[in-house]
Please model this.
Amino acid sequence: MKLNRYIGVAAVPFVAAAGLMVTRSVAADPQTGDANRGALIVANGTDYGVVACARCHAFDGAADGSGAFPKLSGLSTYYLAKELRDFASGARADAIMSAIARRMKPGDIEDVAQYYSTVHGTRTPPPPAEPELLELGTRLATIGDEEKHIQACEDCHGAQGRGLAPAIPPLGGQYAHYIAFQMHMWQKGYRKNDANQQMANLAGRLGPKEIEALGVYFERAPDGHPATSRRQQ
Model:
């Protein structure tokens, strides 16, 4: 059990009551897909129009280093499959991914998700960061901002952004550009597929410099697979 620093900020998958966060058990990440078949789709696509995932995300899930495409290695099977289903249903919109996901069969989604959850991409060294920007990102990620009612990102995404499987994705090692872009998507209402609109609410309290700073911080955090149970931080 842990004190909720900022009143009015929901903490999924935790229940805020009387200023307290109460933990609940987290189910293990389901392993329903066929990683070997997923690897074939990632490398070659399908004959019914699914584009090879490796074109943008690379075969090892590390993407191309630009930050335009996210790293997928280390994300849980559950989270990857959920996002693909959200792209297919329209719950999450993206000009490229929505079109691809709509062509995927349910088995394709499970298999690709299973594959990327098992690979470990080669990490791209992050570019130099301004010390003041990194300091701001560190403070927001680990402490938050009481005055602006911003909860520390690591309260939900774990120490150094390692995530909490199966539902909360790791942020550590993800490209700063991609993190910042997604925060702007939450902020402007273009992305709405989070539980209880928690990310949209938090993003709405952040300024452009704070969003940039968070990306800078998490890009430099260790990457890896998320934990499967919540530890006291």
Notes: The first helix runs from residue 35 to 44.
